[in-house]
């Protein structure tokens, strides 16, 4: 049960970071809405970029947290 809770927190953190980074990039989509098709394309691109940034950041945070318990696995994640 403890393992499921830990993975739930990790996935929740990733989703939270993704939403946060996407909200930072949201004004770009609004600016691109001058041309309707551009707005959709920019929102898709910024969503993917936000996912990449959130994934990398999540892995780094998880690796830093694991240094105390599993140092070799943490080095592998970084």
What layout of secondary structure does this protein have?
Blueprint: H1 2-32, H2 36-66, H3 71-77
Helix pairs in contact: 1-2, 2-3
User: What are the secondary-structure elements, in order, as H or E?
Assistant: HHH
User: What is the helix content?
Assistant: over 70%
Terminal CA distance reads 27 Å
What is the approximate shape?
elongated
Strand content: under 5%
Number of helices: 3
Explain this structure:
The protein is an all-alpha fold and 78 residues long. The protein contains three helices and no strands. Helix 1 packs antiparallel against helix 2. The longest helix has 31 residues, at 2-32. The protein is elongated, with a radius of gyration of 16 Å. The relative contact order is 0.12. The mean pLDDT is 89.
Structure summary:
The protein has 3 helices and no strands. The chain is an all-alpha fold and 78 residues long.
């Amino acid at each position: 049960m403890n393992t499921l809770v830990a993975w739930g927190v990790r996935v929740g953190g990733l989703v939270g970071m993704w939403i946060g980074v996407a909200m930072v990039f949201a004004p770009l989509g609004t600016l691109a809405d001058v041309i309707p098709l551009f707005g959709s394309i920019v929102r898709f691109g910024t969503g993917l970029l936000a996912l990449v940034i959130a994934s990398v950041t999540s892995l780094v945070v998880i690796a830093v947290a694991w240094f105390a318990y599993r140092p070799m696995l943490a080095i592998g994640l970084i």
